[in-house]
Amino acid sequence: MTIATKFGFTQTWGTDSRPEHIREVVDDSLRNLNTDTIDLLYQHMPDPNVPIEDVVGTMKEFVDAGKVKYLGLSNADEDTIRRAHAVHPISALQNQYSIFALDTESLFPVLEELGIGFVAYSPIARGFLSGGVKSIDHYAPDDFRRQLAWWKPENFDANAAIVAELAKFAESKGATLSQLALAWLLAKKDYIIPIPGSRNLDRVAENVAAADLTLTAVDLARIAEVAPEGGIGGSQG
Q: Which of 30, 43, 88, 108 could cross-link 60 (Cys pair, CB 3.0–4.6 Å)?
């Protein structure tokens, strides 16, 4: 079992990567997880009020103490990655990446240069590539998808058309749409690890089976033809 956890948000979703807050959160995580060691510790979001050098310097304290094995960043840009890596090696970057969200591809050269692995969150495009996407009218007034551009009325139909084409292609490969989305990530780079969310065992089994779907260069080219710029509305949805 590998334990990964994060710090960097307040309870009201503000950013807080002050050294004293990092220490508090990590100590709480060790206690709450009933473990002596966290395998991978991430900063959840860059904090504009705290230099990344101070953040990673504090994270390094836990590595030196044997309480954390590896350090990671999330939602970071190239400059942040380089500055962080200069303080202590960064082992993983976790950013949004999917067929619908392509912006993070610009970071691949620096990840390869520095030997950093990539963890793709929202690999199913926040559910748009799940095979069961619905228009925004089907979601509760407080559903977070109401804030995402992929679901906006001016974008939804175009995105739904992309999904329909991808679903047809997935069916031709004997796979579901979500399996195609996960297999696409695995085929892009050998250092990419997708982390799909799953609410039931059937979905977990479906996601795991995506590893058995092999996509060729021709397949990847077809997917790029269908969604050349990702989802309509931008990479952040």
A: 88
Entry field: residues in the chain? 237
Reduced to 3 states, what is the DSSP secondary structure of residue 146? helix
Lookup: tokens for 32: 């709450």
What's the CA gap between 144 and 92, in Å, rounded? 27
pLDDT digits (tens, 9 = 90+) for 207-225: 888 889 999 999 999 999 9
**Residue type for 24, please?**
E
How many angstroms separate the CA atoms of 36 and 61, rounded? 15
Task: Read off the pLDDT of residues 104-163 as tens digits, 9 standing for 90 and up.
Answer: 999 999 999 999 999 999 999 999 998 888 888 888 888 888 888 999 999 999 999 999
Model pTM?
Answer: 0.92
Give the chain's largest Cα–Cα span. 54
Q: In angstroms, how far is CA 183 from the centroid of its own chain?
A: 15
Are the CB atoms for 228 and 99 separated by under 8 Å?
no
Residue 14: both structure tokens together: 């503000």
